[in-house]
Design brief:
single chain; alpha+beta; Arc Repressor Mutant, subunit A; 2 domains; 3-stranded antiparallel sheet; 3-stranded mixed sheet; 5 helices; 22% strand; globular
Length: 136
């Protein structure tokens, strides 16, 4: 995440959300556990410690963090959304055997030019798929 925990809390507060214990727990978790998370995985990790945590709170909080630019939303498979805590320029590699998502540190060369055949490019979302080193 590009902001500190305190800054992320301020962002949510600025969106008019009450900073409940559950929302604070979600933010703290994301700041401490960098990676590519699903809402269900976050819910599964936090639910035992926060019995009143609802799936709706997890999904809504993640959605708002994506809108605010604090998370990157990734739909690498049609059935699940992943939330990437690293929002800087990079691509992804999806292992089709184990499902691992690996960051590829490179910026899209097309985005650097800002144009494709007269169209303005604002962002580039690309991923590679194959078999990761561990599965090979």
């Amino acid at each position: 995440m590009k902001s500190t925990l305190e800054e992320s809390l301020e962002i949510l507060s600025g969106l008019g959300l009450v900073l409940t214990l559950q929302r604070r727990a979600i933010l703290k978790f994301l700041h401490e556990q960098q990676g590519h998370w699903t809402a269900e995985a976050i819910y599964g990790e936090l639910r035992p410690r926060y019995g009143s945590l609802s799936r709706a709170t997890v999904y809504k909080t993640l959605e708002l963090l994506c809108e605010a630019g604090e998370l990157q939303c990734l739909r690498l498979r049609k059935d699940v959304m992943h939330y990437d805590t690293f929002t800087g320029p990079h691509h992804h590699f999806l292992c089709e055997q184990c499902g691992a998502i690996i960051d590829i540190p490179m910026e899209c060369p097309i985005k650097a030019s800002g144009r494709i055949e007269g169209h303005r490019v604002d962002r580039c979302i690309a991923y590679f798929a194959g078999v990761c080193e561990a599965c090979l």
